[in-house]
Amino acid sequence: MSVAVQTGFKQQEGHLRRVPEHDGKEMAPQLSVVVRGKRVACLPRAHLLLGAVPIAQKDGLEIRLPDERHVEALQAVVGYLADGTMDGVDAHNATEVLECARLLGLGNVRDACEEALAERVAAENCVRLRQLASQCGLPRLKRVCDSFLTDSFAGVLAERAGLDLPRVQVRLDVSSQTLELGTDLLEKFVPRVLVALDTIRRSTRKRLEEAVVQLVLQPDLRVTEWCREPSDKLRQHAPLSPERNSAEFYAKLRGGCSPARQLILTPTKTPGKTTESCGMRLLATAKLTDASSACLVEEGASLIVVSISVCTLLHNGQLPTSPTTGLPTFSQTNGCFISHMSLARSGFGIVATESEILAVGGFNRSGCLDSTESYSSITNSWKSRERMNVARGRLCTAVVEDRVYAIGGSDGKRELSTVEVQDLKHSRQWQKLKAGMPTPRSCHAAAVLDGVVYVVGGEHYSVPLKTSESFNPSTRSWRTLSPTTTARSDLALATCSGKVYAIGGNAPGLKCLSSVEAYDPARNLWSPVASMQFPRRNAAVVTVGDKIMVIGGYSGTEVLRSVEIYDPATNEWRECPPLCGARSHSSAVLYNKQVYVFGGYSGSLFLNTAECFDLRTEQWTPFA
C-alpha cells in the first residue's frame, strides 16, 4: 500500500503495492516512510502501524509524506497506538494527524484526536479548531468551540487568530426616537442586521468580504440601506416625516452615505425570524462599548467577524447641525463615515499616504502588538496588513518616499534600537534595517523634514532622554544631533516652517511639561519657544499648513480633551475646540484635508474609535 498524505484533506494517491521479493523468497511485511523522495531512517515504534492497519499485515506498508510536519503527525498516531494518549496533537498539527488517521483507516485515532482537541480549546486556538471542526466534520469539537466562543468571544477577538479573521463593518444609523428603545439596542437588532447582510450577499451573488455597509434602522424596526438615487421605494421606507421628503434632503443623505454599498434593501423576512433562516449563522457576540458590538458569523465553511456600530444619523428625522454654525455637521455632508480600527491601540504609530492611513503596532490590554492595519477611504474600511517581525509598543513611525519606518519602542520587556521598514509599493513585507538607532528607546517621537527622519527624546530604563538623532534614508545612516535642553519622554514631535518642535512630555521625576523647544537643522541647535497653555504628555500632534495642532494627552492627573494650536510666526498658542472624548496615547494624521485622531486610552478603556476635526467649521465629530 502506498499512501501520499497531503494537506487539504484530499488523497491524491493510494494503491496496493506488494513488497518486492528477494532471491525468490517472500519477505516479511515491512514498513517504510518516505519524505520528499527520501526514506526516513528511523521512526520510533512505527512497527505498530503494521498491526493496526489490516491491509498492511500481509503486504507491508509504504507511506509517502510531503514534508516533515506529516512525520510529526504520524508519530502522534504511533504514540496513540503505543500508549493510548494523544499528547502530541494540537491546533497546529491536528490537520495532518486527522488526515493520517483517515488515509490509514484508523477511526479510533480520529475519535481520540477529536477528544484530545476538545479538551484543549482555549482563546488562542479556538478559532482555528472551530474551522478545523467544520472542515473535517468533528461534531463534538464543534460544540465545545461554539460553547467557548459564546462565553469568551471578547477574549478570542484579542488573539492573533481572531484579528486575522475577515471582517465586515456595519454602521447602523438610528433616529433619536429609536435610541429611546433602550440600551439593549444592539442585542435586539443583531439578527436583523445579519438578515440584511445576507440580502446584500444574495443580491450581489458574492461572498461577504471586508467592507463597510451603512444600514438604517427605521422607526418600524426594519433594517434598510440608503441607495445612491432617490426613488419612491426609498421614500416610502425612509424614517422621515412627509414634509422632509424632498430632493434636496435626499441629496444630503446620499452625500453622507458610505460608498461601499449602494443598494436599496427591503428584507422580505420578518423581524422575528432567526439568523438560521438566512445564509449566515450567528455563533457569538461581544459588546465592545455601549455603541458597538462584534459578532462571529459562520457563512458556509468560513468564519467572519461582523462589527456593528450604532450612530445617530437623524435627530427626529433631521440631520444634526453644528451648534455654532447651524450647518449640517461635517460627517454627514462629505461622505466620509470613517470606520473603527479593527483593534484598540494605544501608543502606536500612524502614517498617511495619498491612498491610505496605516496604523502600526502599539499596545492594549493584551500587551505589545506586532499587527498593522490600513484604512482606505474608497471602501471606508480597515484591512489587516503584514505583521512586523517584532511586537512594538510606544514606538514611532515615519514615511519617506513610500517607505514606512517603525522605529524603536518596547516589546514589553526592554527598549528597542531596531528599525523595520516596509515598502508600500512592492512586497509590503517588513524588513529589519541593518542600521539600528544608536540609542535604544521607547516613548520617543519622530518627524520628517526635507526627507530626513528626526527621532527625539524617549526613555531608556525608565529614564527620560535628551538625545536626538536623525536618519537619512538615502544613505541609510544615523547621525547624532545636539541634545534637547530638557530631557523628555512621551513627547510630541512636529515639523513646521523648516524646524523641528519637541512639545511637552515627561521630565525626570514624572513631571509633566508644558515647555516646547525648536530645533534648527542648519545650526544644529535647540532653542526654547513659547510654552503650551497646559502641561501634557502622550499627546497627539499634526501639522496643518503653517501651524501645529496638539491634541489631548495626559496632564499628570487626568486624561485631556483640550486641544491647542501653535503659530510659529507669532510664537503663540491658542485654545481650540476640545475633543468629544478625552484620550491620551492616541495618534493623529492629516488626511483628505481633515484632521483625524485614532485610538488611545480614555482613562479606563483602550480605544479603537476616531474623531475628525473639520478645519472649516472647527468642530470635532466622533465616529462612535
From TrEMBL:
Keyword Repeat set for record: yes
Signal peptide stretch: none
This protein's record includes keyword Repeat: yes
Keywords: Kelch repeat, Repeat
SUPFAM superfamilies, alphabetized: Kelch motif (SSF117281)
Domain of life where this protein originates: Eukaryota
Protein's recorded name: Influenza virus NS1A-binding protein homolog B
Species, as recorded: Geodia barretti
